[in-house]
Every structure is written in C-alpha cells, then in structure tokens.
Request: fold
Amino acid sequence: MDPELIRDCVHCGFCLPTCPTYVLWGEEMDSPRGRIHLMGQHVEGTPLTDAMAGHFDACLGCMACVTACPSGVRYDRLIEQTRAVVEREHVRRPDERAIRALVFALFPYRRRLRAMRLPMRLGRRLRRFLEEVHPSLGAMAELAPDVPRPVRLPPLVRARRRRRARVGLLTGCVQGEFFPQVNAATARVLALEGCDVVIPPGQGCCGALSLHSGREAEARRFARRTIATFERAGVETVVVNAAGCGSSMKDYAEVLADDPAWAARARALRTRDLAEFLAELGPVAERRPLPVTVAYHDACHLAHAQGVRAQPRELLRAIPGLELREIEESAICCGSAGTYNIFQPEAARELGDRKAERVLAAGADLLVSANPGCTMQIAASVRRAGKGEIRVAHTAEVLDASLRGLDPGMLGRSRR
Ligand code: SF4
Ligand code: SF4
Reply:
C-alpha cells in the first residue's frame, strides 16, 4: 500500500454517503475513509488482523468513493494494492479458500464455463440444498442465468458500409459464454456503423476478476496475453462491452508498471467501452423507432471507474420512440461487483434488494445495463422479491434492435 496515496486522504468524509457498505451498516471502518485509516495503520506496522481483512473484503471495489472524493484520492489503486496484501498475508478459513479456488479455476476459462451449463441448470433446482452446504454455492445457484445457445462469431465481421474504423472486440468470459447474444449484437452494431470488427478466436480472460481480487501475478499473465492477442489482430481500438473488463484493460499500464516493455505495449493498446467508442465515432446508421420504456442502470465499473455515464444515455435517447427513465440512487452499487455476490452473499443480497426496489419503481418495460454481473444480480434480486422475471438487455442489443427494425417486445425475453 503506497503511503503517499494514503496521505492524500484528508478525512473530510464527502465519500461516506456514496459508499454502499457505509450506507448499509453506518460503520466508519466500512467506509472509504475508515478503510484508508486501516491501510495507514498496516503501513505503520500494525499486523493485518482478521477484522481488518474483513473490512477490506467487505469493500465492493465499486469506486463510488473515487467519484465523490474532492481530493482525488486514488482509492482504486489503494484497494487493489490492499487486496494483494490480504491475499499474501491473511489466512482464510478452509471453506473460503475452497470457494475461491473453485471460482478462480472456473470463471476466467471459457471452456470450463461452457462445461458448467448443465450443472448450472441442476444447481438452480438444488439452490436450497447448495445454500445449506455453503452460502456462496447458494448464491451461485441463485445468480445463474438461463444460458442461450452458443453463438459462433466469425474472426472478422466486415463493415456494412464505407469503412470508418478497424476495431477488435473483446468477447469476455462470462459475457461470451452466458450472454453470447450481446457480443453478436455488438459486432452487428459496429459493422452497421462502418467498422471492420476483428474477433480473435483464441482470446482468453482479460484478468478483471483476478485484478479485482488481489491475484496480481495471475492478472498480469492475463493482461499480457490479451495485449499480445490484440496486437496480432492489428486493430486501432479494442472495443469492450463489459464494464468490469473495460476498466481493467484501461488499467493495464498500471498493472504492468514493473515491466517497462509491457507497460509501453499496454499504453499503446487503445481500449474503449462500446458506448464511449460509438459516441466518439458518431452515428451514420439509421435508427428505426423502438417504442419501449427503458431504465438505464449505471454499472459501477463503467460510471465510476471509466466515467462513462452520458454516452450510453445519449445513444439510447437518440432512438426514436424510446423513453429513457432514471433509476433513483443510480450511483449506489447493485451488489454484483465481480465476485462480491459470491464471496459476500449477504451484503450483496441487501444491496440487490435495495436496487431491485428502485429499478421496479422506475416502472420501465426494460432494464438496460452494460455489465453481465449487474444483469445477473438485478434479475436475481427481482426474482427474490417475488416479482417474476425482469426484462434485461445490454445497450448493444437495444441499438441493434433499432438499427435492424426489430420488435422491441423481443428484447430481454427468455433469459431464464
Ligand atoms: S469502493 Fe465502493 S464499497 Fe469500497 S470503499 Fe469505495 S464506495 Fe465503499
Ligand atoms: S477518500 Fe476523499 S472524500 Fe473520502 S474522506 Fe478521504 S479525502 Fe475525503
């Protein structure tokens, strides 16, 4: 933990009302300011206790505090460094170690995720039993989406009009396996807007889950591999449609800072979120009317970590007939936060319930989000509230439906 970054905090407390764990529990040590105080204690020689590790583990890494902080405290860097310290120094309970080993042996590997299709279906039926075995297993069963048939994307989707850019598309692990229709829609939208879309077939995990969990060496390995993959693809920009992946890829130069050659290659890799890229490119494809009411959910790793808030809203508002509604408390995390809803299921459920209430209050036909984790978390929370299935779609799917003149009633159907 960098003492300089810790000293930047002037303890003003402006970040407290935006911190989901402080909002839930009102405990100073579960606020950004409290956690920075604990980091300072550890740097000054206090050994890492179970209680300290618990306060760090309870942090969602949502970065709402980074947005709120007037002093520019780099809490994002601080918590990443702290998580690595926790991984090195804290001895977890055997059951926690087993669940973590399972998650990190599974989620960053697409083939293994693919093999989970059948167990996931069974797991949903066995949710109560799994919950009794371990709350994290129960959470995994509850969150499991209805996985559509795999979609095979070609290595190159050509621009459907005069070419304006050549981009790479990160397909992602969870996005690629559980939400393949989002990648297909993304490629179509980009092609219709005049992009050649290169989709390297052998791409692996971008390292987001590892990075956000303090597994530094693993994160660096995934980062190097992703950089090399897109260098070979010869693209100008890598477009990412999953908020957590995009924010990690934008951090590659910092992740690889100890290795100047790789850090330089990371800086040369231009990464853009889909909405951010389309806003920069400007629209040329005709938007057809889409009479639908949409509530837009800000994924934390898009809004707080990447500062992308206006672009998706502008893209949606530009669709004729679409009515955009805001969700109250949009800056507060839904509780998904990468693996948080698996490792901290109780807190995640509290936040999910809070978010579900506000999403339903918006009274929209469709919830739109740009992160697969948020989609699964909010859909599960709405189900838990006894409100049935909520229709959820990615910004790319809504745009795709408008560009192709599809029936908006089809959006977000049959997720489960
Ligand atoms: S990252 Fe989110 S949960 Fe963690 S301290 Fe900041 S606001 Fe709170
Ligand atoms: S992190 Fe920023 S907003 Fe929060 S107490 Fe420190 S200086 Fe104030």
Summary: The mean pLDDT is 92. The two ends are 42 Å apart (CA to CA).
